[in-house]
Structure prediction request, 818 residues.
Amino acid sequence: MRGQKTVKRLGYPILKQKAFLATVAILVIMIFPKTGFYTSYNLIELLKAAAVLEILAFGVTLTVICGGCDLSIGSTMSLSGIIAILLMSHVPMWIAILAGIASGAVIGFINGFFIVQQKTEPFIITLGTGMVIKGVCQQLTDAKPIAPDNPMFVKLANGLAFGFLPNVILVTIILMILFHLLLRYTAFGRNCYAIGGGYDVALYSGINVIKTKWMTYVICGMTAAAGGIMLSSQLNTGSSIYGDNTALLVNCGVVVGGTSFAGGIGGIPQTAIGLLLFSVLENAMNSLMISPYIQQATKGVLIVLIIWLDCYTIKRKNEAV
Amino acid sequence: MDIDMSEKDSVFILQVENVCKSFPGVKALDHVTIEVQRGVVHGIVGENGAGKSTLMKILSGVYTKDEGTVIFDGEVIERTTPIQSLNRGLSIIYQELNLVNTMSVGENIFLGRFKEAKGMRGTHTKAQKLLEQIGCSIDTHTMVSELSVSQKQMVEIAKALSFNSKLIIMDEPSSSLTNDELKGLYKIIGDLKQMGISIIYISHKLDEIFDLCDMVTIMRDGNVIDSKPITELSREEMITKMVGRTIEKEYPERPYCVGAPLLEVRNLNTRKLHNINFTLHKGEILGLVGLVGAGRTEIIRAIFGADKVKGQEVLIDGKSVKIKGPKDAIRVGMALVPEDRKQQGLILSQSVETNITMAALKDHVKGIFLDKTSQKKIAEKHVASLAIKTPGIKSRVVSLSGGNQQKCIVGRWLEIQPKILIMDEPTRGIDVGAKYEIYLLMKKIVEDGGSIILISSELAEVLSMSNRILTICGGRISGEFNPEEVSVNSIMERVLG
Prediction:
């Protein structure tokens, strides 16, 4: 009985999720053509490609649930990798990595100051801070890719856990579980939903709305930075161009997953699937050797389609005769 | 000899002494003194703008008072915040209910106190117990967005109980309740009183004040006019004190202008409506009565083209018309004064002028630009003819009182001279004086040849103003009455089905 209820509570929303259905549809379609899609090598590569975006998206989900968004994550991701790689020549690797993540926290703190404390528009502010950070990245690297001194750094993301699972995927799974628990079962997480669902209500219920919302930006900066460390390790290179398309893609994936820009609804499982959809789609299209231009257009069509279908179902539900 | 302080503490839960509050240009509260005894229901009445809401916001800590003393439960309270007030045992249930729609009932009750409630499981068990205490059987896992207004109110009351409230202030709690739901609320208030909880009950509806309250305080223009036991006041006295002038009657004389059939609706069916047929005559005020959710608003939405319908035929002046959306409805001469003034009726952040002229904008175009002069002329004409109290036509609508906001909407539609004016709860949240003006306006509209469909939860209003009454129950028309020959009871019988 209890189990059934839990299945209903957790499973039902996922099953109705358009992103989930689309992912399943692609996976089913890919059974038929003769491609390298269903090889263990390709599937691991698929997850590796998704992993970094997922890490970024977990933090973004927090800000979106609180009724905000964060477009500075792409540059933050670049910056943390660059900082870690530059520092690595002078200090132990783990300190360099922590410094990279700390840079994300600082950026999140600044974003939070403007958005939450000074009550400005998150979209424009994070777009602006993102541009600033990108400039900093270019300055630090002279806009050239840089390589780490420490040969161990590349193992951080690419090393194998249990002999088969790349570390980056393991880290993503651990973070996913942690963030899910954070949102679902802690006071902080529930307060995020309350703030996004009704800011004034949360305020008058004694929730420290400023602190909580501010915190989401700090966390979001930190996940972006952690993602950046992972990406730089994966590629064994730091570069200022990594984050160019990331921010929009991740924010978009979060919304496609089912976390509403209006705030108050959504969650980590939805985000995980929303982002996974993009990776599955891209990988499938690569396996089918579809031209990159068509790929780009297809991704756009899928985004529009899913958001439209979501709104259409709601509209139909309200108007049904 | 005066009673000493400690004895006074035990008598009064709340003492407000000489509290003042000014906003730029307005003295919202002017030396207000109110004493609320323990375990009583204390009514506060007054027109909009009398200062009731300001006083409540000072008590809850949303505003800070300029001067004066507030003593709650024997403790002098200088500055407070909403959460401190709650923890002291003072809860306010606002008119616009304060719940997070996207969260569950249980989580809303313990919002921000997740740890205190011992996690998710504790939250739901405790919330369930509180709801049972007030005889309410909502599942605490339900999303608040799925609840009816009265259920949401119960959740708010349960939330107040969860703070061990000693005083619960209810601001216009009945404004969206049906009679049945109101009875439920009466019972809950009775139970709360039994538990020794004091209630401050703010309402425009004098019937409720007389039914429920032990004491009543009358406010006007930021002052307390009178405060006495309800038994020492008559209805007329109360109204006179509220408005500061004598109002002879609450309603003007019923207009009699009914002519030939104007609007005929045949076979209207939607998801919630079944086989609706009715006729509206020229110069008629047709009252629609029903419980919230019975389908009153749905009928209007369907005729107006806002909802999908099947198999309906609408005839105007005997000719069949196709209405696919509000635009078509307006074209054939309908206009809607919606139920939710602030959400559906007005653009609050815009000026009086913009709000009045927005329906007739295409008539104020010169070349490709808007004709500012004619817009201004129209707005000024309606402000004058409807006696809209506003500093000027450029003032923002949000700063006007409810009655004057409503008049802006009526003015907007009068400009396009509709044949049929549909008014959904036109006097909700409007004070007695302004209500009378709205009634006069309705009378004038039908006398000038218009027709009105009036939807209202206030039975007295429908009985006094309309020429004919239709009762709606479960999506069907359950009866038709002549308001001059029918008793309230026989109408209620049909309303309840």
In short: The CA atoms of residues 257 and 270 of chain A lie 5 Å apart.
